[in-house]
């Protein structure tokens, strides 16, 4: 059967197929029912919407009755449903890399990273590199909720006396010196895999403080041990922020982190506890 005008095709294609054949005025294909990628999403990612007043300045009819007279505008500007769209050049998405380099440079210069990231996100939205909906969709709210709850749990443990009770329980078990440091480090690392590194410090610090007060010893080695162990959240994708960064692009699942993170966590815990005990004379 030879294709003729009016025939319908079911085509399984990548989004760049839409960019090449359906994103600008073309007689090749007309998208009747896109699956998984709407034409609106294509327009948001490859076009910039301009107010209708710019149509008169550019000499573009808003009703789409005729193409622009200028050859450059004919390839770059089009109207859909009374809206004026300007097609972005093919190299436009590469601006994301430029923004990333700017964020790294600003962070190395000592600028507040939170403010830099906020400005970078706004710039990406303004430049149509990402939509507001996409930016919100990439936020892992579970991490923020879990971390916030960890701070509340830490305060509750300190104020209710649970931290002091757990600390006394560890001392009653006969733990002291390197063994006590090891238990605190293991607990901190396991908690970090659930409530992130900051949350684990918030939970474990009151326990270590209660132990130090009952023993009358220095807090410094316990603080160092907990701080190092908090970075042992390598068993889950949300234990460390760096794990979250690579989990999406690398398509890693929780099993990958558990398989490769378990031996790494064991080695890291042994080395960090051993070095802490050697430096502060706890052997």
Tell me about this structure.
The protein is mainly alpha-helical. The chain contains 13 helices and three strands; from the N terminus they run H-H-E-H-H-E-E-H-H-H-H-H-H-H-H-H. It has helices at residues 15-21, 39-46, 53-58, 71-76, 95-108, 113-126, 132-137, 141-160, 162-172, 177-215, 220-229, 241-250, 254-279; strands at residues 47-50, 77-80, 83-87. It has a three-stranded antiparallel beta sheet with strand order 1-3-2. Helix 10 crosses helix 11. The termini are far apart. The model has no long low-confidence stretch (mean pLDDT 77).
Topology (elements, then pairings):
Blueprint: H1 15-21, H2 39-46, E1 47-50, H3 53-58, H4 71-76, E2 77-80, E3 83-87, H5 95-108, H6 113-126, H7 132-137, H8 141-160, H9 162-172, H10 177-215, H11 220-229, H12 241-250, H13 254-279
Antiparallel strand pairs: 1-3, 2-3
Helix pairs in contact: 5-6, 8-10, 9-10, 10-11, 10-13, 11-13
Attribute tags:
single chain; 283 residues; mainly alpha; 3-stranded antiparallel β-sheet; 13 helices; 5% strand; elongated
Give a short overview.
By secondary structure, the chain is mostly helical. It is 63% helix and 5% strand. Strand 2 and strand 3 (83-87) form a beta hairpin.
């Amino acid at each position: 059967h030879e294709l003729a005008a009016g025939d319908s095709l079911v085509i399984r294609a990548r989004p760049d197929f839409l960019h090449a054949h359906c994103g600008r005025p073309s007689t090749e294909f007309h998208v009747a029912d896109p699956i998984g990628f709407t034409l609106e999403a294509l327009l948001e990612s490859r076009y910039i919407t301009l107010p209708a007043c710019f149509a008169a300045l550019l000499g573009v009819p808003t009703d789409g009755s005729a193409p622009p007279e200028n050859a450059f505008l004919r390839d770059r500007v089009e109207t859909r449903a009374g809206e004026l769209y300007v097609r972005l050049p093919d190299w436009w998405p590469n601006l994301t890399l430029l923004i990333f380099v700017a964020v790294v440079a600003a962070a190395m210069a000592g600028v507040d990273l939170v403010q830099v990231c906020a400005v970078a996100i706004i710039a990406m939205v303004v430049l149509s590199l990402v939509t507001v909906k996409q930016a919100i969709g990439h936020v892992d709210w579970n991490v923020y909720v879990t971390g916030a709850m960890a701070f509340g749990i830490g305060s509750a443990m300190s104020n209710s006396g649970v931290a002091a009770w757990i600390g006394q329980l560890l001392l009653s078990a006969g733990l002291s010196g390197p063994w006590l440091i090891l238990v605190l480090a293991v607990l901190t690392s396991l908690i970090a895999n659930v409530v992130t590194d900051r949350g684990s410090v918030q939970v474990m610090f009151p326990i270590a403080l209660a132990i130090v007060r009952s023993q009358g010893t220095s807090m410094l080695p316990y603080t160092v041990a907990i701080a190092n162990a908090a970075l042992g959240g390598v068993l889950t994708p949300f234990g460390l922020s760096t794990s979250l960064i690579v989990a999406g692009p690398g398509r890693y699942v929780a099993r990958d982190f558990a398989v490769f993170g378990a031996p790494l966590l064991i080695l890291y815990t042994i080395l960090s506890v051993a070095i802490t005990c050697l430096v502060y004379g706890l052997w």
